[in-house]
Design the sequence.
């Protein structure tokens, strides 16, 4: 009889573990797209193909909002979202920028040579500090920055059709 009493706590723990794992596998998709209202980082990033030049998103280039996608060649979800980024770049010419996060320049160039380069310009963040300044939790992530340097949309994880639509609305508005 006493042995059965030992099974009850083990069964409860196992049940809670299964429930927790299920919840982790079924995240609320809305938590991955957030309206933001904070300043873009002041940090300037060297350009991939012209390291003597820099780009800063605190004062975004161009006349309207811009999208900044933080990506890396070693990131599988970055490959998966590349087509969506290319579509956005075609729809919003001059508004789509990239930031290579903790990636070797040669690897970034090979990645873009293989998949195509949809970005207007690409900054490099070899130490990862710039990504942290943005509020990055893991690549890929996409930020839409208003013309006055405010982050107005933050997309965690890879872009898909629905998330790309939200980015397009922010870029167009």
Sequence:
């Amino acid at each position: 009889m006493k042995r059965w009493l030992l099974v009850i706590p083990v069964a409860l723990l196992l049940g809670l573990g299964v429930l927790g794992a299920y919840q982790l596998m079924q995240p609320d998709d809305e938590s991955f797209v957030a309206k933001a209202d904070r300043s873009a980082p002041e940090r300037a990033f060297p350009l991939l193909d012209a390291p003597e030049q820099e780009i800063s998103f605190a004062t975004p280039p161009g006349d309207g909002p811009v999208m900044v996608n933080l990506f890396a060649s070693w990131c599988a979800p970055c490959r998966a979202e590349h087509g969506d980024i290319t579509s956005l770049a075609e729809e919003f010419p001059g508004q789509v920028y990239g930031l290579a996060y903790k990636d070797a320049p040669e690897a970034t160039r090979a990645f873009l040579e293989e998949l195509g380069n949809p970005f207007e310009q690409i900054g490099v963040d070899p130490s990862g500090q710039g990504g942290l300044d943005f509020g990055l939790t893991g690549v890929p992530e996409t930020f839409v920055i208003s013309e006055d340097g405010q982050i107005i949309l933050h997309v965690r994880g890879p872009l898909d059709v629905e998330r790309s639509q939200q980015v397009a609305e922010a870029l167009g508005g």
